[in-house]
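From the methods appendix. Each design record in this collection lists the tokenized structure first, followed by the designed amino acid sequence. Records were kept in a plain field format so they could be parsed without special tools. The example shown here is representative of the layout used throughout.

RECORD:
FOLD TOKENS (305 positions):
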């Protein structure tokens, strides 16, 4: 029997490894390019600009992922200089050549119309723009963020693929032939994406939202009233509709204690995550399973009184 390893070439490696190799090759080529300019008169300043851009890129990415105003005053000043001073320059240029006198006066008086500011901001962060000038600080920052993001996506592939198979198993084991209500379908796609990409806390929140939507689509206010629930200031809540769905007077899911437990489990876990501790729920896959069970059961009924 012949050995195919010679014919396989790079195919013998894990795709995750190959992707990381591609990112590494790109990063090395970038470094080699900049090193080739060592003899250039402007190298010292360019090298410092590149190092500064790498630090700013790291900070901007961290701020975006945390959605927090993190960073020292010095670091925030660096971001300001890169983006906002550039906008200020463009505003000044725009004011000097703008044909519309009213817009020109507004800019000169420090009142920049929102649509103009939005256009200026887009012109700075447009994906095509950084390629125009390799020495522009924004170009260097853009490049560094692309590299860091590519490393993350390549390195995390081996974590994502098993999660896809885990969801396939849940679909096979839990879903029947009935289609869930359309609003729930939209939430289910958010659940799956969050889970696949490792956003476990967000996934639990989406699970609660998905069953909330399914109950609202299926369990009417009349169902809640028949179950003895009192309408609150903002209408009936998820807990009311869960109770109504399993109440014997509505002849829907009464007697299905396992399903009732699943619905309460998803509600309670979602509440915990939203109101108390984002990391409170560890059994994320179990929460998805419970959500699918509940939504699948509710999809058997049409909303009725």
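DESIGN:
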């Amino acid at each position: 029997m012949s050995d195919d390893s010679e014919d396989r070439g790079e195919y013998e490696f894990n795709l995750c490894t190959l992707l990381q190799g591609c990112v590494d090759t790109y990063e090395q080529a970038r470094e080699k390019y900049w090193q080739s300019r060592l003899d250039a008169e402007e190298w010292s300043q360019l090298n410092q600009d590149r190092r500064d851009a790498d630090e700013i890129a790291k900070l901007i990415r961290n701020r975006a992922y945390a959605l927090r105003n993190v960073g020292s005053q010095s670091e925030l000043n660096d971001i300001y200089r890169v983006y906002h001073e550039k906008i200020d320059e463009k505003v000044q240029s725009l004011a000097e050549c703008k044909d519309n006198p009213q817009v020109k006066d507004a800019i000169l008086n420090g009142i920049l119309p929102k649509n103009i500011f939005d256009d200026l901001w887009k012109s700075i962060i447009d994906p095509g723009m950084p390629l125009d000038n390799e020495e522009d600080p924004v170009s260097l920052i853009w490049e560094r963020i692309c590299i860091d993001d590519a490393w993350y996506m390549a390195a995390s592939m081996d974590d994502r693929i098993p999660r896809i198979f885990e969801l396939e198993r849940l679909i096979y084991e839990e879903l029947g032939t009935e289609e869930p209500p359309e609003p729930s379908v939209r939430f289910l796609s958010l659940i799956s994406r969050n889970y696949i990409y490792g956003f476990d806390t967000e996934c639990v929140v989406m699970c609660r939202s998905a069953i909330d939507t399914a109950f609202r689509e299926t369990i009417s206010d009349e169902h809640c009233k028949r179950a003895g629930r009192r309408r609150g200031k903002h209408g009936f809540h998820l807990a009311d509709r869960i109770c109504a769905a399993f109440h014997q007077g509505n002849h829907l899911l009464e007697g299905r204690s396992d399903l009732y437990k699943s619905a309460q489990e998803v509600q309670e876990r979602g509440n915990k995550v939203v109101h108390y501790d984002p990391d409170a729920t560890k059994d994320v896959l179990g929460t998805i399973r419970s959500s699918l069970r509940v939504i699948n059961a509710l999809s058997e009924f049409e909303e009725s009184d």
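APPENDIX NOTE: The chain has a mean pLDDT of 82.
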